[in-house]
Amino acid sequence: KVLTARVYDVCKETPLDLAEGMSERFNNTILLKREDLQKVFSFKLRGAYNKIANLTAEEKQR
After folding, report:
1. So which cofactors does this thing need (predicted)?
2. Neighbours of 7 (CB within 10 A)
3. Which of 15, 34, 35, 59 fits 55 for a cystine, CB–CB 3.0-4.6 Å?
4. From CA 62, how far away is CA 57, in angstroms rounded?
């Protein structure tokens, strides 16, 4: 269900990058999700899109 969400019409899949320094410091594998690579350079794109997509017709008119 998540992978077929409407938000994927406007978002692109972004990679997970290894954070080497943090991984070494905490002796664990730390991965960073690169939402900053979205076309609008925003990690908030998904939330904003979902909010707008779920507005009623009346709310969209405002």
Report:
1. pyridoxal 5'-phosphate
2. 14
3. 59
4. 9
Question: Structure pTM?
Answer: 0.53
Dist. CA 13–CA 6, nearest whole Å: 13
Which pairs with CB-CB distance under 8 Å and at least 24 residues apart come from 5-12?
5/50, 6/49, 6/50, 6/53, 7/45, 7/46, 7/49, 7/50, 7/53, 10/45, 10/49, 11/38, 11/45, 11/46, 11/49, 12/37, 12/38, 12/39
Compute mean pLDDT per 10 residues along the chain, 62 residues long, and list them: 61 89 97 83 69 85 82
The Cα 5–Cα 23 span in angstroms is 32
Yes or no: say if 11 and 22 are a contact pair by the CB < 8 Å rule. no
